[in-house]
Amino acid sequence: MSAITLLGPAEIRALAQRAGIRPTKTLGQNFVLDGGTVRKIVRQAGVTAGERVVEVGPGLGSLTLGLLEAGADVVAVEIDPVLARLLPGTVAAHVPGLTLDTDTDTDVGTDAAGAPDAPAPVVVLRDGDGRARLTIVTQDALTVTELPGPAPTALVANLPYNVSVPVLLTFLERFDSLERGLVMVQAEVADRLVAPPGSRTYGVPSAKVAWYAAARRTATVGRAVFWPAPHVDSALVRLDRREPPAATVSRQEVFAVVDAAFAQRRKMLRSALAGVAGSSAAAEVAVRAAGLDPQVRGEQVDVVGFARIAEALHAARPVPSGPGTVAP
C-alpha cells in the first residue's frame, strides 16, 4: 500500500473553511489536529490490518485516515451531512487507489422546491481489489441499529463530548460483535467510565459499562491537540468485551435497579430502591436476599451485586393469574 498522509492543522482549517464549516458545540465537535495523537489512539486500540472498525463522528477525517493507515476497513457514522459529504473526497486525496463505489453518489441534488437533497445515506470507497475500505453512514449514532458490510470488531472514536456516554452504551448494547473499543472522551467522563465501586466517581456509567466490558483509562490528552481547543482535558479509555454477569433476569431489569440506586445516590439502598421494589420493606428484603446490607449505598455495589438484587426483586413479584393460569 502506498503511504498515507495524515491531516495537519493547516489542512484541517483549510478544509473547514472551504466547506463553510465552523465546529459547533451543539454537535460536540472538536477536531484532532495532531497526527501523533491519532496514531496513539490507533496503537492503543490494537487495530490490525484487515479488521473492520466502526468510528463514530469522523468529522474531517483525522482519525479515519489513521485507521486506514493501519490497514483497517472503516465504517464511519457521521450525523453532520456536510461533513459526511466532505469525507470521501478528503480520504480519496490522502489514500492512493481508492475510488468511489459506482453505486453511490455524493453529488448534491435538489428536490422539487429547489432545496438540497439529503446526502446519500451510505457511501463506499473501494480499493483496486474491490474491497470496501471506507463506508460512510450519514445518521445519528444513537439511532443506528445496523451497519452495512461485515460486523465490526472494534469501536475507535473521538466521541462527541455531549453524547459520549449514550453513544458508547448504545454501541455496546446493539453490536455484540465489538470485541474492544478505544474512545476519547472528556477526562471527567473517562474517570466515571472506569471508576470502581466505592470511589467518588462511581455511578451509572461505571456500572453499566462494567456489564459489557472491562474499562481502563490509558492516557490523558491535552487541549492543544484539538480545534477548537476545549475547556477541559480529554482522556483515552480502552474497553475489552467480557461476558455479562450470570443472571436469570434481563439487562433491562438490572439497569433499572442501577438507575434507581443512583437517582438519589446518598440514599441507602432500602430507600433508593423503594420505587422499583414497591416499598422500602420490599427493597430491604431483596437487598438482603442478594447478600448485601440494605444500609449500603449504590456507590458501594458492583454490577454483579445489582444483578443479584434484580433477580431477588423479580423472584418476589407475584405470579399473574388469569385465563389459563392457576393462582397460587
UniProtKB/TrEMBL annotation:
<keyword id="KW-0949">S-adenosyl-L-methionine</keyword>
<feature type="binding site">
    <location>
        <position position="158"/>
    </location>
    <ligand>
        <name>S-adenosyl-L-methionine</name>
    </ligand>
</feature>
<feature type="domain" description="Ribosomal RNA adenine methylase transferase N-terminal">
    <location>
        <begin position="37"/>
        <end position="243"/>
    </location>
</feature>
<dbReference type="InterPro" id="IPR029063">
    <property type="entry name" value="SAM-dependent_MTases_sf"/>
</dbReference>
<dbReference type="InterPro" id="IPR023165">
    <property type="entry name" value="rRNA_Ade_diMease-like_C"/>
</dbReference>
<dbReference type="GO" id="GO:0052908">
    <property type="term" value="F:16S rRNA (adenine(1518)-N(6)/adenine(1519)-N(6))-dimethyltransferase activity"/>
</dbReference>
<dbReference type="InterPro" id="IPR020596">
    <property type="entry name" value="rRNA_Ade_Mease_Trfase_CS"/>
</dbReference>
<feature type="binding site">
    <location>
        <position position="30"/>
    </location>
    <ligand>
        <name>S-adenosyl-L-methionine</name>
    </ligand>
</feature>
<keyword id="KW-0698">rRNA processing</keyword>
<feature type="binding site">
    <location>
        <position position="32"/>
    </location>
    <ligand>
        <name>S-adenosyl-L-methionine</name>
    </ligand>
</feature>
<keyword id="KW-0694">RNA-binding</keyword>
<dbReference type="Pfam" id="PF00398">
    <property type="entry name" value="RrnaAD"/>
</dbReference>
<keyword id="KW-0489">Methyltransferase</keyword>
<dbReference type="InterPro" id="IPR011530">
    <property type="entry name" value="rRNA_adenine_dimethylase"/>
</dbReference>
<feature type="binding site">
    <location>
        <position position="140"/>
    </location>
    <ligand>
        <name>S-adenosyl-L-methionine</name>
    </ligand>
</feature>
<comment type="similarity">
    <text>Belongs to the class I-like SAM-binding methyltransferase superfamily. rRNA adenine N(6)-methyltransferase family. RsmA subfamily.</text>
</comment>
<keyword id="KW-0963">Cytoplasm</keyword>
<protein>
    <recommendedName>
        <fullName>Ribosomal RNA small subunit methyltransferase A</fullName>
        <ecNumber>2.1.1.182</ecNumber>
    </recommendedName>
</protein>
<feature type="binding site">
    <location>
        <position position="57"/>
    </location>
    <ligand>
        <name>S-adenosyl-L-methionine</name>
    </ligand>
</feature>
<dbReference type="InterPro" id="IPR020598">
    <property type="entry name" value="rRNA_Ade_methylase_Trfase_N"/>
</dbReference>
<feature type="binding site">
    <location>
        <position position="78"/>
    </location>
    <ligand>
        <name>S-adenosyl-L-methionine</name>
    </ligand>
</feature>
<comment type="function">
    <text>Specifically dimethylates two adjacent adenosines (A1518 and A1519) in the loop of a conserved hairpin near the 3'-end of 16S rRNA in the 30S particle. May play a critical role in biogenesis of 30S subunits.</text>
</comment>
<keyword id="KW-0808">Transferase</keyword>
<dbReference type="InterPro" id="IPR001737">
    <property type="entry name" value="KsgA/Erm"/>
</dbReference>
